[in-house]
Write a sequence for this structure.
């Protein structure tokens, strides 16, 4: 939050406007990765990546249930990833 506030001060924007811009930039940069994950789960569930994307938007609880019931993507033998503490 401090970095966001500093960036908004440097650019002369409201924090909320800068937060929207930062989120939009993140989504543009992550677009392919997000769709790749949709494609991965779609393959496991017999759906297209677009159907998975729609499911995540329309029914996030159901999407979370399906993701959790799908088992892990990584095993302990894979070693740490960027999300491992």
């Amino acid at each position: 939050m401090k970095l966001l506030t500093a960036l908004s001060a440097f650019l002369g924007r409201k924090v909320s406007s800068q937060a929207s811009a930062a989120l939009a930039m993140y989504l543009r940069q992550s677009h392919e990765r997000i769709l790749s994950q949709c494609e991965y789960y779609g393959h496991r569930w017999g759906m297209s990546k677009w159907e998975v994307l729609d499911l995540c938007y329309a029914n996030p609880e159901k999407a979370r249930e399906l993701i959790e019931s799908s088992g892990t993507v990584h095993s302990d033998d894979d070693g740490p990833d960027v999300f491992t503490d």
The longest helix spans residues 15-45. Residues 25-71 form one domain. Residues 45 and 72 are 14 Å apart (CA to CA).
